Amino acid sequence: xxxxxxxxxxxxxxxxxxxxxxxxxxxxxxxxxxxxxxxxxxxxxxxxxxxxxxxxxxxxxxxxxxxxxxxxxxxxxxxxxxxxxxxxxxxxxxxxxxxxxxxxxxxxxxxxxxxxxxxxxxxxxxxxxxxxxxxxxxxxxxxxxxxxxxxxxxxxxxxxxxxxxxxxxxxxxxxxxxxxxxxxxxxxx
Length: 189
Prior knowledge:
Elements: E1 3-9, H1 17-25, E2 30-35, H2 45-53, E3 59-62, H3 72-84, E4 88-91, E5 96-97, H4 101-134, H5 147-155, H6 160-167, H7 171-180
Parallel strand pairs: 1-2, 1-3, 3-4
Antiparallel strand pairs: 4-5
Helix pairs in contact: 3-4, 5-6, 6-7
């Protein structure tokens, strides 16, 4: 039986140290972490590895339920998958485990709250953007990759995988940038 910790933050500028420290203090034998959105399971390779690794009697430990996901159905499906493998989930804050029936009820409610919280955040974000646009103070989100550098490397003959490695982004981002160039047909993936 292993205690496997899972830490997640949504963006690369956020810090995982606090979650990892809590998971270590809880006695997790293995800790996997990633910096990716919890809106869906897409792109969450570390979580997929944990789910593949889980054995009967193992325990998946997270600091808060929203580290598993922001969508109630996705979180409940994830918990169900753990149970199908004979493993269980424990959330540290508030301390809840699915070992008992009451734990399932509490985790379902917490999952619904996490989803509702995400909707509120998105709504406040949309409202703030609309207010800023009305004042002429909004120019869009900050670009996360250097569009000019990607186009330059493409013109030099580098392929999308090599460009992604050189720039430090995903290959999919390279494809999107190249597809956005004026007068260029979209790249098929």
